[in-house]
Every structure is written in structure tokens, then in C-alpha cells.
Design brief:
heterotrimer, A alpha/beta, B mainly alpha, C alpha/beta, A: Rossmann fold, 2 domains, eight-stranded mixed sheet, 21% strand, B: mainly alpha, MetI-like fold, 72% helix, ABC_transporter-like_ATP-bd (chain C), AAA+_ATPase (chain C), cell membrane (chain C)
Chain lengths: 338, 294, 328
């Protein structure tokens, strides 16, 4: 079943857009559209982790939901192992869902409170019917072990678990159908720091054990730095910078990325001493009435006239780094440094 | 393979079913438990009463207006000399059956409409909610009187008349619960694992939406009993069946001379409806997860 | 010089269904005027409870101060009358909360809400209070304060609402500002702005800040001293830099190393994160005569299970409640 060509990426997302209708001015107002995700493209190689980072309203979660077809995209393609996920009919989609699973943010609302843990983990197997019914219990047993839960705990209800344990159940459920791509949407942000470390280590171990590919959505740059191979930075529905881990964290190009990284508090004394904190004042523009130029122009400390007039496209630099900013020079010198 | 620790975070608790926990909460509400006992007695009387107390409530057994206790009639007799005790016991059946049946009917209609509206959104929701609003603004008593007057005062028709005017509250509750729950992550997770719409609606969302619906249904049994009493007081009832409202209605001219003929069935209605409300209140405590936490 | 706030052997008890539990157990610390101190720990360790205890806002009938003392400016707060506490709150000691969405009243404009505090505590007239509310909004760096003072909370972003909360808290020039996870609900760029604002305000007005957080990075950024809380007890306290460089309690060390931090230069190598296994014990286990961290500690010995460790003092007033503090 799996794609034989090793080099082609497992996931290819091309020009993905998601828009939501917004009604303004009461019942007879005009309907305009909010582009939560606007022309986003990326790909993920098998066994690797791509992180999408951004702040609230950046569209990172909507992107993840659209990739999984949990919200409808209005344009674009999502190819998983060559198969366009967005064009499948209902029947085919239900089958294809086995290859792509989701881990949710909130360990409290992501488990059905009326089902026992074993049933929650079994549910995907039961609805997809990819495995004969007799084998399913064995798979559930293995998954419980893999995520570090006691076999006796299978009979418990969600409210009898702690937050970290609930997240383990959510992970076991996501792995039940042997997916290739797992989307982790802020999978650890609701957890206490000590528990967060347990879950991050677990995710890493499972990735190695089951050869998983992760799409990792997070606002926590420390966590992203630890987990991913490639990063896409989103701002107001667009990818503004896209690069591998070392290149992005050690030499960010886009002024927004620079400001974002400089804002992260750190325990590293040297980093604190040498990083100038760049404050970006104000708020993002109204997403329904976007200005003509760069979406970051109104908060950018180095914005020029061109930024307010022309929308910058995402372009590749010689180093392979991709950035959407007029002011980054051809050789990749950023306009703003921390 | 993983180095994740096996966590003895809490001792393995005994797997308790949520229902067991709900009962635990219910038991703490003493008024509700007392009301439940009273209600159980009333229901038992309604079921077995006619065997224990076989006197025909339509038979004239003694002089009219015998006060309670006189001549061996525990609750006295009415204006035709019929035994009030017999009327009370036989009437319990009708009142409770109509109450429960009408409540069931409105739950059935209300849940179906509310679930469809809350799950599908869009034009389905628009249409169904406009229909709901239409029924909501109808003058309920008048509308059910018209139905009974047009189609005859049989018990099923009375039940229908009550049910058809009282489902709107259930529909609204169901819809709002569906709207809330459909966007919770476990529903998403279920969808992501390929669960179909019908299963999502009825086996994933509905069981989680049930608590407030059950509470509403319990309260509705009470209001349906009152409704039935109102209709039979106005004479819109099956003349061949005795019910509490009907007893009040037929004795209403003598309220000054023999007030007990009206008061006794009135108290019966009052006690039953109060008991149902208290039980509903207890259910609310028991099923409301916000109160259950710690 | 006497400290501004002095907490000694504080014990706060909470009545639960399972009995009485000490949510704060023998906690002592001092806060000087204009100083900045941080409480760190996982949820359920009693950080917020300490703040509520100081504010006199413990949950009624359930929580009470069982023993110990809290002195503010030489005045004992544990025995102060309700009226006196009401005078102090919002005036001398104020507090901001985590959730800027729900801590403002949606039916009044932000100007009215700030002015209300000024009129109640400082007896200002309507006009003077409004005037000062505008100035305060300007001080917390809301652009075009004069135009925004008549806005309702829903017209503002999360960061702006938190600024309004800070303006309300600072309206009466308090001596102490308690900030309970003030930026947890906010984006990181907004958090940087709020931290910047709080630091500047502290420098300008000399208000001491108690910040409650779970983020070691934020502590390093904001505080001079920190107190690591575990299961209602002080695990370790002392100067921030010194503790981060050389923690003397295994819990502190766990908290620092279980988080993937951004370093100055990122390298190819990635360590497995140090795990602190398990979770915080439940309330019913608080108060036992043993080290409550023992069940999660990699260095646990029999001594830790037998007796509660005393606080051991090190240089620069670093104190650690661990039997093995010297060896760490």
C-alpha cells in the first residue's frame, strides 16, 4: 500500500485555503469572508516532524483541521502518500482516515465521558473495521502498554484519570489504526510542565517505534524547537517563514519571527544577556478587511512604503530558507536582528 | 519499548459506572429522596390500588356529601354519593399515565427536532427552529382545547394534545446541548476516526446531552398532570374515565358546601406534582457534572 | 529595615469532604519594598492559595488560616477585621488574575471600571476619577487612551484587557501587586509587552510584585527571588540566578530541566527531557510527616519517607527543604 518512492514526501499540502463567512451589520448585512488559512503550502517527509507555530488567530489550528478534513477547505490539495485527501468521497474518506489521526489539546474534553478507556481506544477500530473484531482487544492491550498505562486501567472512565493519563489515552486512540501521519494540535499545552515532559518524551519514543510522521501545532517555541525538524511560522493565515530547525532558530529572517523568538523568556543567562527584546506594538489588522500590503506591516518595526503597498510572496533564499518579506536581501540578510 | 513510566498516579480505583455516581449525588439530596418515596407510593397505588380497593368510583355507594371518616368512607363521598377514596385511587392511574405518556411524546418530538437542528445547522436548523418558535407562541391551553374539542376527548387524544404543545422546551434544550457538544474534541476525534453522522448524533452526542433532557422530562410529567387536570376541570375529558381534575371539575359547584370534595383531589395533584418537581431537582444535582466535580 | 510583607510559619487549612488538609504548610518568606518575587510550581501546589491568604480572600467556610502570621508594614493581617481587609485590598495590596476575558465586567466601560476603584478608595469626584482613569490607561500603554477609555471590554483584545486589569490594580498606587499567572492566557509577544510594562511600573512606582507562574523562563525574566512550592510546602527559595545555576532541591532541578528551553545557540543534538514522573499528591496526603516529593524523587532514601525535611540555609539566603540538599 505504501508509496514506494522513498524521496517523495508523505504529506504534500498545496495552496490550501479555508474561509469562514462573516456577517456584519445584522440580519441584512453583507456576508464577507475571513480567510483563516490563505494559500498555505508545505510538505512533510516520512518520519519527520513539521511544526506550525504562530499566535492566536494565525490559522495554525485551522490548517491542521483542514488537513484532516475536520473543517472544509475552499481551495487547495492535501496529498497523503500521493492520494488527494480533499477529493475523496465519504466512503473513501472513512477508509483513508485510518492513515491520518489527530491528538487534541484538551485532555478533558477530548475523551467521551461516558465510555470506558478501552472503548475509547477501540472506537476507531470499530468504526473503520480494518481489523477483524477478534483481533481488536489485542491491539488495545498493546496500545495501553505502549503509552505507559496499566492494563487494569482499561475499565476506568475518563474522569478517573489525571490530565497526563488522559492525554496518553488520546494518544493510544490516535495510534489505534496504525496511522502514518499524526497531527498533534497543541497536544501538551494544557498540561503541567512535569507532565508535559513525560508526554513529549512519549511522543518521541512512539515516533521512533512506529515510524510516525508528525504535524505538530504549537505556540510554545521551546517545545517546537525540541520536537521538530522543520518549522512553518504563520501570521494571519499565511506562512511567513519556512525553514529547517537550526536555520530558523539560529538565523531567523522575517521580522515577525525575529520578534517572536526574542519575546520568549528563557532560563539561559547568555541568551537573556545577548538577545534584545523586540516589542511589536499594536494588534493584527482586521482579518476581514485586510490591508493591501504585508499583513505584518502595521506592527513591523522596519516597515517601508513597499510593505504597505505590495503583498510579499513566499520566496526561497539560496540557503533553502523560505520567507515572505520584501526587506530580506537576496543573500538572506534579515532587516532586523535581535 | 517506551521509557514512559508506568504511573501508579492513583491507586487503581474501582471502575464505577457514572450512574452509580449519580445515585450517590441523588442520595445526598434528602428532599428528593423523600419525594421519590412519596412518588413511588403514588405510583404503586395507581398500579395496584384498584385491586386493593375495588370500589367502583362511578357507583353511588352512600349519601352525598358524607364528610371524610363518616360511615366508613375514609375520604367521604361526593355530590352523587360516590366514594372519593375510590376516585382518588382510580384517578391516579389516569393522571400518571397521561402525565408520563405526554412527557414521553414531547421528549420524542423535542429531542428529534432539537438534535437535527443542533447537529446539521444551516437551513435545517433555521427551518426547525422557526417551527419550534411557531409552537412556542401558540396559546397552549387554547390550542389543546381546540384539538380535544375537534377530535374527541379520548385519553390518547388528550395525551396528544398535551404532548404537542409542550415539546418546544425540550427541543431548545436539546439543540443547545448539541451545539455545545458537537464542537467538543471527543466528537471531533470520533469524526476523525470515521464515525458516520447517525452514529455521531445518537451514540456519541445524545448520551452526553441527556442529563438536562431527563431533568426537563421529569418536570414535564408534573406539568402534564396539571395540564390534564386543567382540561378535565373544563370538562374536556373522557366521561367514562375518572381522573383527579375531573373530580374537582364535577364538584366545583359545591365548593362552599362541601369543600373537601374539591380539596382532596386538589391535594393529591399538589403532592404528586411537588414530589415530581423535587425528584427532578434531585436529578439535576445528580446529573449535572459541574456540581459533581469534587 | 523591616520587610514590607513578612509571612511566618503560615498554615492554611482547607476543609474537604475527606477531612481537613493543610494546603499551605509552614510557609515563611519576606518581601521588601519594591522587590519582585515569584512563586513557582505545578498546579495544586498552593501557589494561588498563598496569594488568596495574603489578600484575605480564602474561600469562605472552607479555607482558614490555622496558624502563623502575615504582617504587612508591621500590621498583622491574620487577625485584621473584614473592614480593614477591604480597605487594604485594591488600595495597598491588589491582584490581577489569569483570565483577562472574564475578570472585567462586560456591561461597564473600562473607564467606568477604573474610575469606580478610584472613587471607592480615594474618594475622588466623578470628573477627577475619569480624568485619572484616562491617565492610567495611558500609563499601561493603551494607544489613544483618551479615545479608548469609553470602550467596553469586548472591544479590546486580550492583551489590552490585561492592561486594563493592571490599570485597575495600580489605580491606588498599591505597595504590593500580586499577579496570578498574568500572561498564561496571552500570546508570547503580548506577554513580552506585559512583562516589560510590569518591570517599568515597578521601577517607577516602587510597587513590589509577587508573580505566580509555572514558567521558569518567566521567573528568570521577571523576578529577583523565587519560591518553589511543592504540595503546600516551601521546597526551595532564594535568588533566582543562583537557584537556576545551582538548584538545591531535586524538584527545582526537575522543573528547570523538564522544559525544552530556547538557548542562545541551538545545536543539532537534542536530549531526552528529564522527567519528573508521576503527579502532585492529592490533598489528603498533604501534611504527612515525610518529604512529599519522595514518591517522585530520583534520590529518595529511607530518611525522606520517615521525616519531613527541615529547611537548610545556604549562602545568600538560599533555603532548601531536602535531606540531601548539600549533596545536590
Amino acid at each position: 500500500m505504501r508509496d514506494s518512492t522513498v524521496d517523495s514526501p508523505l504529506v504534500e499540502v498545496l495552496n490550501l485555503s479555508v474561509r469562514f463567512p462573516v456577517k456584519r451589520g445584522g440580519a441584512f448585512g453583507r456576508t464577507s469572508y475571513l480567510y483563516a488559512v490563505d494559500d498555505v503550502s508545505f510538505d512533510i517527509r516520512r518520519g519527520e516532524t513539521l511544526a506550525i507555530v504562530g499566535e492566536s488567530g494565525s490559522g495554525k489550528t485551522t490548517t491542521a483541521l483542514a488537513v484532516a478534513r475536520l473543517v472544509a477547505a475552499c481551495d487547495g490539495e492535501v496529498k497523503v502518500a500521493g492520494q488527494d485527501f480533499l477529493k475523496l468521497d465519504d466512503q473513501a474518506l472513512r477508509k483513508a482516515r485510518a492513515r491520518l489521526q489527530f491528538i487534541f489539546q484538551d485532555p478533558y474534553s477530548s475523551l467521551n465521558p461516558r465510555l470506558r478507556a478501552e472503548k475509547i481506544v477501540r472506537e476507531p477500530l470499530d468504526s473503520m473495521e480494518t481489523v477483524p473484531a477478534a483481533d481488536r482487544q489485542g491491539i488495545v492491550d498493546k496500545l495501553f502498554k505502549a503509552v505507559g498505562l496499566h492494563p487494569e486501567q482499561q475499565r476506568l472512565f475518563p474522569h478517573q484519570f489525571s490530565g497526563g493519563q488522559r492525554q496518553r489515552i488520546g494518544i493510544a486512540r490516535a495510534l489505534a489504526t496504525q496511522p502514518e501521519l499524526v497531527i498533534c494540535d497543541e497536544a501538551v499545552s494544557a498540561l503541567d510542565v512535569a507532565v508535559q515532559a513525560q508526554i513529549l518524551n512519549l511522543l518521541k519514543a512512539l515516533q521512533a517505534e512506529f515510524d510516525l510522521t508528525y504535524l505538530f501545532i504549537s505556540h510554545d517555541l521551546g517545545v517546537v524547537q525540541h520536537m521538530c525538524d522543520t518549522i512553518a511560522v504563520m501570521y494571519m493565515g499565511r506562512i511567513v517563514e519556512y525553514a529547517d530547525r537550526l536555520s530558523l532558530f539560529n538565523s531567523p529572517k522575517h521580522p515577525y519571527t525575529v520578534a517572536l523568538l526574542s519575546a520568549v523568556p528563557s532560563v539561559d543567562k547568555e541568551r537573556r544577556a545577548e538577545t534584545r527584546r523586540i516589542l511589536i506594538p499594536g494588534d493584527p489588522p482586521d482579518p476581514v478587511n485586510l490591508p493591501p500590503g504585508c499583513r505584518f506591516a502595521n506592527r513591523c518595526p522596519v516597515a517601508q512604503d513597499i510593505c504597505r503597498q505590495t503583498d510579499p510572496a513566499l520566496r526561497s533564499l539560496p540557503s533553502g530558507h523560505r520567507v515572505a518579506c520584501h526587506l530580506v536581501s537576496e543573500d538572506g540578510t534579515p532587516p532586523l536582528t535581535p | 519499548m517506551t521509557d514512559a513510566p508506568i504511573l501508579p498516579e492513583r491507586e487503581i480505583e474501582k471502575a464505577r459506572h457514572p450512574l452509580a455516581e449519580a445515585w450517590e449525588m441523588f442520595r445526598r439530596n434528602h428532599a428528593a429522596v423523600a419525594a421519590l418515596i412519596v412518588l413511588a407510593l403514588i405510583v404503586l397505588a395507581a398500579i395496584f390500588g384498584p385491586w386493593i380497593y375495588p370500589t367502583d368510583p362511578f357507583e353511588m355507594v352512600w349519601a352525598p356529601f358524607s364528610p371524610p371518616g363518616a360511615d366508613g368512607f375514609l375520604l367521604g363521598t361526593d355530590y352523587l354519593g360516590r366514594d372519593l377514596m375510590a376516585a382518588l385511587i382510580h384517578g391516579a392511574r389516569v393522571s400518571i399515565v397521561i402525565g408520563v405518556a405526554a412527557a414521553l411524546m414531547s421528549v420524542l418530538i423535542g429531542v428529534t427536532i432539537g438534535a437535527l437542528a443542533g447537529f446539521y445547522r444551516g437551513w435545517v436548523e433555521e427551518l426547525l427552529m422557526r417551527v419550534t418558535e411557531f409552537f412556542q407562541v401558540l396559546p397552549t391551553l387554547l390550542f389543546s382545547m381546540v384539538i380535544v374539542a375537534l377530535f374527541g376527548a379520548s385519553l390518547p387524544m388528550i395525551t396528544f394534545a398535551i404532548g404537542i404543545v409542550s415539546w418546544t422546551a425540550v427541543a431548545r434544550i436539546t439543540r443547545s446541548e448539541f451545539l455545545r457538544i458537537r464542537q467538543l474534541e471527543y466528537v471531533m476525534a470520533s469524526r476523525a476516526s470515521g464515525t458516520g453522522n447517525r452514529k455521531l448524533m445518537f451514540s456519541v452526542i445524545l448520551p452526553n446531552a441527556l442529563p438536562p433532557i431527563i431533568v426537563q422530562a421529569a418536570l414535564m410529567v408534573g406539568s402534564a398532570i396539571l395540564f390534564e387536570a386543567g382540561l378535565s376541570f373544563l370538562g374536556l375529558t373522557d366521561p367514562n374515565v375518572v381522573s383527579w381534575g375531573q373530580v374537582i371539575g364535577s364538584n366545583r359547584q359545591y365548593i362552599l358546601d362541601a369543600s373537601f370534595t374539591v380539596t382532596i383531589p386538589g391535594v393529591a395533584i399538589f403532592v404528586t406534582v411537588l414530589a415530581i418537581s423535587l425528584v427532578g431537582d434531585g436529578l439535576n444535582d445528580a446529573l449535572n457534572p459541574k456540581l459533581r466535580q469534587r | 529595615m523591616a520587610p514590607l510583607l513578612k509571612v511566618e510559619n503560615l498554615r492554611i487549612e482547607l476543609t474537604t469532604r475527606k477531612g481537613v488538609a493543610p494546603v499551605i504548610d509552614d510557609l515563611s518568606f519576606e518581601l521588601g519594598a519594591g522587590e519582585s518575587i515569584s512563586f513557582v510550581g505545578e498546579s495544586g501546589c498552593g501557589k494561588s492559595m498563598t496569594a488568596l491568604g495574603i489578600m484575605g480572600l480564602l474561600p469562605e467556610k472552607i479555607g482558614r488560616i490555622a496558624s502563623g502570621s502575615i504582617t504587612f508594614n508591621g500590621e498583622e493581617l491574620t487577625t485584621a477585621s473584614d473592614k480593614r481587609m477591604r480597605d487594604l485590598r485594591g488600595n495597598e495590596i491588589s491582584m490581577i488574575f489569569q483570565e483577562p476575558m472574564t475578570s472585567l465586567n462586560p456591561v461597564y466601560t473600562v473607564g467606568e471600571q477604573i474610575a469606580e476603584v478610584l472613587r471607592a478608595h480615594q474618594g475622588l469626584g466623578r470628573k477627577a476619577a475619569w480624568e485619572q482613569a484616562t491617565e492610567l490607561l495611558d500609563a499601561v500603554r493603551i494607544p489613544n487612551a483618551r479615545g479608548r477609555v469609553g470602550d467596553y471590554p469586548f472591544q479590546m483584545s486580550g492583551g489590552q484587557r490585561q492592561r486594563v486589569m493592571i490599570a485597575i490594580a495600580l489605580a491606588c498606587k498599591p505597595r504590593i501587586l500580586i499577579a496570578d499567572e498574568p500572561t498564561t492566557a496571552l500570546d508570547v509577544t503580548v506577554q513580552a509587552q506585559i512583562f516589560d510594562l510590569l518591570n517599568d511600573l515597578r521601577r517607577q512606582t516602587g510597587t513590589a510584585i509577587i508573580m505566580i507562574t509555572h514558567d521558569m523562563g518567566a521567573v528568570a525574566e521577571m523576578a529577583e527571588r523565587m519560591i518553589v512550592m511543592y504540595a503546600g510546602r516551601n521546597a526551595e527559595q532564594g535568588p533566582v540566578e543562583q537557584i537556576i545555576d545551582h538548584p538545591r532541591h531535586p524538584y527545582t532541578r526537575g522543573l528547570i530541566s523538564c522544559v525544552p528551553h530556547l538557548m542562545k545557540v541551538l545545536t543539532e543534538e537534542r536530549h531526552t527531557l528529564t522527567e519528573v514522573p508521576g503527579i502532585v499528591p492529592s490533598l489528603s496526603e498533604f501534611g504527612r510527616d515525610q518529604c512529599l516529593f519522595a514518591s517522585r524523587c530520583p534520590q529518595v532514601t529511607q530518611q525522606c519517607l520517615d521525616k519531613r525535611p527541615p529547611e537548610m540555609a545556604f549562602a545568600d539566603d538560599q533555603r532548601s527543604a531536602c535531606w540531601h540538599a548539600e549533596d545536590i
